[in-house]
Amino acid sequence: MALALKRRSVLPGFGLTLGYTLLYLGLVVLIPLAGVFLKTTSMSWPQFWETITAPRALASYRLSFGASFVAAIINAVFGLIVAWVLVRYQFPGKKLVDALVDLPFALPTAVAGIAFTAIYSNQGTKAGWDNIWKPGE
């Protein structure tokens, strides 16, 4: 009788970690997104059109897309200059400038961690959900 040996996983705890991640994805992203979608489907077409073409909504579209466009142009120009300098020249502080270029890639993770810490600190998960969603509002 051959004993079946259980193989160790290359990624121990992967199932638990994936489940935890999908739970929070559902609670923090998918449920609120579904709520917005359901609210939209309960509106008639004229109500929906009135909502998305309201002066305040149009101003927010202009601000968002305009600021994004200006930021993209500025980033393209200065990014090209910084990339050119980092590749072509040696200078004191080059590693610091290279680290500053890499910082925005790490920053969103840090900001999310700080936000979750602020939500859940001292009072536990229940206080965190009370800060996110307050019934009756």
Task: Itemize the secondary structure elements and their pairings.
Blueprint: H1 14-41, H2 45-52, H3 55-88, H4 94-120, H5 124-132
In brief, what are we looking at here?
Helices cover 77% and strands 0% of the residues.
Defining traits:
137 residues, mainly alpha, 5 helices, flat
Poorly predicted regions: none
Strand content: under 5%
Total strand count, please? 0
Total of domains: 2
Biggest sheet features: none
**SSE pattern:** HHHHH
Rough outline: flat
- Helix-residue proportion: over 70%
Q: What's the helix count?
A: 5
User: What is the rounded distance between the termini?
Assistant: 65 Å
Radius of gyration: 24 Å
Class of secondary structure makeup = mainly alpha
Query: How would you state the average pLDDT, rounded?
Result: 83
Describe the structure.
The protein has 137 residues and is an all-alpha fold. The chain folds into 2 domains: 37-89; 92-137, no CATH class. Helix content is 77%, strand content 0%. The protein is built from 5 helices and no strands. Helix 4 (94-120) crosses helix 5 (124-132). The chain is flat, with a radius of gyration of 24 Å. The mean pLDDT is 83.
